From TrEMBL:
Organism: Seriola lalandi dorsalis
Entry keyword 4Fe-4S: no
Keyword ATP-binding carried by entry: yes
Name of the featured protein: PurE domain-containing protein
Self-association state and partner proteins as the record states: Homooctamer.
Length: 432
């Protein structure tokens, strides 16, 4: 099934319990028969300035829920850990029960809005590279004041049994950057600039794990088609209204609908590609299966073929021509032990990328590897010994044109970093 078809699977017999929380735009209910899960119900209300301005916008709940569900589906498919489970209805989704960390993490690519007021002298449109990170404590009475990292650490929040310390702050900071970059890359496929974005994290009450929670909808970001602020499609249009009229609200609603329709396109691949693994013998099958498995984790199709450039060069070149002839972008991976003829022959006869991934053996591996490393002039194949790394390198090539592959690579980088951070925290706790 397509990612979109997985979003909405209604459960009419869902037993809804007490209301756990209510915000300006949503309500949270416990699910009696599913402990650890909650129902997030959107409302038709739109607000600005901590609800100083608020209006009803018919259909907003469905629009916001569709947007959030698609965004979280994209992030989950990429490998980002979120509280989202699945869309329940037009206006609600199911999520894991979290205790929310009362911080809004704001990530900025382009200077605009409140940043300009707080930083006089910076011109609108200034581009942040790297991204600019800011934190705001959720306190409506004091207009959500900006906080420093030191203030967050000194607050010593304890949620679902987890104390928010340096490790947790670092994880949320690094995760915010990765989430922004993934959504920025996705929106770029629609020629739309993600200007800035706010997100929130929660602590899963069952696992004590920090996950992306709350919602990400058209209230959460600034979107400028073609990088042009005059075409903005986000809630800023509502904030900027001098007078709220029925005609003005229709303009706002059309913008929200535009985003909810476009966001579905973010789940669709913009390019196709494949990896073709050529093995010199079926004895190398286990090695090749590892490459195929790693390719699938990045969403890259992988085909396995058997051919020997030494024993059947004509057949090797015929197979090469087969995959060159259909126009699908291809990366060839040559798996040949002993004397590697596959990689050099392929590289010398195709303009497609070729990766050597020889299955080295303990006895002659140190000598055999030179047939992959030392190439005649005019050949450009690389050599990567690890099957997983060879697949990752191929995925990085496809990620240049396919945002879904790039997003998986970006999330994988984040998850590797987080696992190291948590391992270090655990080691320090054991040492103490």
């Amino acid at each position: 099934p397509s990612p979109l078809s997985l979003l909405a699977r209604p459960e009419p017999d869902l037993k809804i319990g007490q209301k756990l929380n209510e915000g300006k735009t949503k309500q949270i209910f416990e699910l009696v028969d599913q402990p650890g899960l909650v129902l997030v119900q959107s409302k038709d209300q739109i607000t600005a300035g901590n609800a100083v301005r608020k209006d009803q916008m018919e259909g907003k709940a469905a629009i916001a829920n569709k947007t959030t569900s698609c965004v979280f589906k994209l992030l989950q498919e990429s490998g980002i850990k979120t509280a989202f489970v699945k869309q329940h209805s037009d206006t609600a989704f199911i999520a894991t029960h979290c205790e929310m960390i009362p911080i809004e993490w704001v990530c900025r690519r382009v200077a605009t809005g409140s940043f300009l007021k707080r930083n006089p002298g910076v011109k609108e449109g200034y581009r942040f590279s790297p991204l600019k990170m800011e934190m705001f404590f959720k306190d409506d009475a004091n207009n959500d004041p900006q906080w420093s990292e030191e203030q967050l650490l000194q607050a010593k929040f304890c949620l679902a049994g987890l104390t928010i310390g340096q490790c947790e702050v670092d994880i949320m900071n690094r995760s915010t950057v990765a989430i922004f970059e993934i959504l920025e890359k996705a929106w770029a496929t629609q020629n739309c600039t993600l200007v800035d974005m706010k997100i929130e994290f929660g602590v899963d009450v069952k696992t004590q794990e920090i996950v992306l929670a709350d919602v990400i909808d058209n209230d959460s970001w600034r979107l400028w088609p073609a990088g042009d602020r005059s075409q903005q499609k986000d809630k800023q249009v509502y904030r900027d209204l001098k007078e709220v009229t029925p005609e003005a609200m229709q303009v706002v609603k059309r913008n929200f609908e535009w985003v909810s329709e476009r966001v579905k396109l973010l789940l669709e691949s913009q390019a196709s590609g494949r990896v073709v693994v050529l093995m010199g013998s079926t004895s190398d099958m286990a090695h090749c299966e590892k490459i195929k498995k790693a390719c699938s984790s990045y969403g890259v199709p992988c085909v396995l073929r058997v051919t020997s450039a030494h024993k059947g060069p004509d057949e090797t070149l015929r197979i090469k021509a087969e995959y060159e002839g259909d126009g699908v972008p291809t990366v060839f991976v040559a798996v040949a032990g002993r004397s590697n003829g596959l990689g050099p022959v392929m590289s010398g006869n195709t303009a497609y990328p070729v990766i050597n991934c020889p299955p080295l053996t303990p006895d002659w591996g140190a000598q055999d590897v030179w047939s992959s490393l030392r190439m005649p002039s005019g050949l450009g194949c690389s050599t990567i010994l690890s099957p997983d790394a060879a697949a990752q390198f191929a995925a990085q090539i496809f990620g240049l044109t396919d945002h879904l592959v790039w997003c998986k690579l970006r999330a994988s980088m984040l998850n590797t970093w987080v696992s190291l951070k948590l391992a270090d925290k655990k080691l320090q706790a054991c040492s103490l």
